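pinned: reference chain
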Amino acid sequence: MVTQKTILITGAGGQLGKEFGVLVNKFPQYVFLLTGKEELPVENTAALIKYFAGHHIDYCVNCAAYTAVDKAETEKDSAFLINAAAAGNLAAVCKTYNTQLIHISTDYVFDGTGTHPYKETDPVNPISIYGRSKLKGEEMVLQNHASAIIIRTSWLYSSFGNNFVKTMLRLMKERESIAVVNDQYGSPTYAADLAGAIMVVIEKYPAFHFPFSIFNYCNEGVTTWYDFAVAIKELLPSNCTVKPIPTSQYPTPASRPRYSVLDTALIKSSFGITIPGWKESLQRCLLQLK
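pinned: its structure tokens
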């Protein structure tokens, strides 16, 4: 009899974590442990040790994160506690209990001054507290668990939680016109696609040993926040007017990378993953919301 492997999902109350909840029935060969901050506060090392001691965990996907980019500018301690210290502690506990860790990171580790899609090996230079806290988390994860896998993603959205897509849907119902930044470039990522890709990594990981730990994942194609909003409007449809504006007309507490497109060649070639285009995935998400 084959023993089922166990996958622990931390931060299961977030948009990526909830997408794993949807996948549970599609992967009956695994036991999923879906934990939110109430069941398993990742910043509490004693709670982590107690949980791991009570469960045999083969894989841990760390979706727990402090994601309030602007609030992080005034809540630096909280951002670094969750995104760095807790991630590092989780990595150490995973190593102790022989658990393979997959940690989720962000395009915000880059400064956005590039002009070509960022490879995993390109120099990092975060320009916000959030970005710095996530980069420190990457460093602490690999310091404490050298065989951990880090997946950087960008512009994450889902039918769950709070995100750009759901904000646009609400504003397009409430307002006759909205203004959206048109000089920041990136690749939207449907969290359902990312969760599916992580399951491919888990299924194929035992057969592979890579000389690298960091992979990029986002949907195919490049867009701006403005064009992303226009695509949402066209799929509704809506009578709301979407106006393009420069970043200078929409100041925020935290600086955003002007260009944070990620090169996904490495994860595709390493794991045989096919990544859908962002417009196709947006359409699937909107159908899910309907």
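why pinned: The CA atoms of residues 210 and 270 lie 8 Å apart. The mean pLDDT is 94.
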